[in-house]
Write a structure and sequence with these properties.
It is a single chain. The protein is α/β, with parallel strands linked by helices and 356 residues long. Helices cover 44% and strands 13% of the residues. The chain has 14 helices and 9 strands. The strands form 2 sheets. The protein has a 5-stranded parallel sheet with strand order 2-1-3-4-5, with helices on both faces. Strands 7-6-8-9 form a 4-stranded parallel sheet, with helices on both faces. The radius of gyration is 20 Å and the shape is globular.
Length: 356
């Protein structure tokens, strides 16, 4: 597709309504926050010593966003597990949260069964499936949601449920001291700022459409820091699955210690390498200084750079703003490539072969 303002063609290429789900991201967030904060935890859950969240893909990067966003607020050790097994320290003093949009992720069910054997406290966030049955049968506290604002059904496009579902559980548990007003204001902000990403806004004035065109035929490196590190993971995932394109994500300051020396070879990196810097006025001063120098180093080595400036007044508002921009951008990227944004044929093929 050569024209992202061609609404009729976009509708034909989006039969399962990914665009509709993308527009409903604020509604997903509001529903999940309102419902998950009402979950009640038994008293014995409130004395756990650590929290382990088990998730894969779209059900992993959302709790990771919460971990990075509230790095300085979550009062217990908080780890993300993306595998079949749990860390050795998980025991009766641990809370294991099972995160699975579909409720059928085999790695997560495996972790749940292992957590049960070790006597850990267990909770969950999912829409149904075997994991929902496991949680209900054992009367574990859980946020089991109805994804009514995700008509396309894909977990990565229904990220608001997992994102705010996890935040709400931590809030209800008492380990995330945050003013609910800040959450409501952030959701309202993303509802308003998302309007400029909408398909009805022309290419010339639409930041998401413009960013999608910048990404075409590149190998993008998504660069973030501090409270946005989880977003970088999510955006890269969506570029892969929705846009059907390779991507990478890195963080400042970590990349300053090695990656800059790796931009010399292969020669093709100078032809298609693109560093997308997500900058924020809420980063610490030392990080802001590193961004300017890093951009200079990348440019001097002949790679393209693009800067995205976030405008939200709070960290949560900027995270939701980035999520909305990323979701719209990857949808438009799929349109440019004439790809169905929902289908994931190679992931499906892999799962079919694994099930044999």
């Amino acid at each position: 597709m050569k024209n992202l303002d061609d609404l009729e063609s976009i509708k034909k290429m989006d039969p399962l309504d990914v665009l509709g789900s993308t527009k409903m991201f604020p509604d997903q967030c509001q529903q999940a926050w309102d419902e998950s904060t009402k979950i009640k935890f038994p008293n014995e859950y409130k004395i756990v010593k650590n929290i382990v969240v088990c998730g894969m893909g779209g059900s992993r990067f959302t709790p990771k966003m919460i971990k990075e966003l509230f790095w300085d607020k979550i009062t217990l050790p908080y780890e993300i597990v993306d595998d079949y097994t749990l860390p050795a320290y998980v025991d009766g003093n641990s809370l294991v949260i099972l995160s699975s949009f579909s409720g059928s992720t085999e790695e997560i069910l495996s972790c749940g069964l292992e957590a049960q054997k070790r006597g850990a406290k267990i909770a969950g966030v999912c829409k149904g499936g075997k994991i929902s049955e496991f949680l209900k049968e054992n009367s574990y506290p859980a946020y089991i949601f109805d994804p009514k604002f995700n008509p396309c059904g894909q977990p990565r496009i229904g990220g608001g449920y997992l994102l705010m579902g996890h935040a709400g559980l931590l809030y209800s548990l008492g380990v995330l001291p945050i003013d609910s007003k800040e959450v409501v204001e952030a959701i309202q902000f993303v509802r308003e700022c998302s309007e400029k990403f909408d398909v009805a806004i022309s290419e010339k004035e639409n930041p998401a459409k413009l960013l999608a065109w910048k990404l075409v035929d590149t190998h993008p490196f998504i660069i973030t820091s501090e409270f946005l590190r989880g977003f970088a993971n999510g955006f890269a995932n969506q570029i892969n699955e929705t846009g059907k394109m390779i991507s990478d994500y890195r963080h400042i300051p970590e990349l300053n210690h090695h990656l800059m020396e790796g931009l010399k070879h292969p020669e093709s990196i100078h032809e298609n390498g693109l560093f997308v810097f997500f900058v924020s006025d809420l980063y610490s001063d030392v990080i802001k200084k590193r961004y300017k120098i890093t951009q200079d180093v990348v440019s001097k080595q002949g790679l393209q750079t693009e800067t995205v400036e976030l405008t939200g007044k709070t960290k949560m508002a900027q995270l939701l703003e980035a999520c909305a921009l990323g979701a719209y951008t990857t949808f438009y990227l799929a349109m440019i490539y004439d790809e169905d944004p929902v289908t994931i044929p190679w992931v499906d093929y892999f799962k079919e072969q694994l099930a044999k």
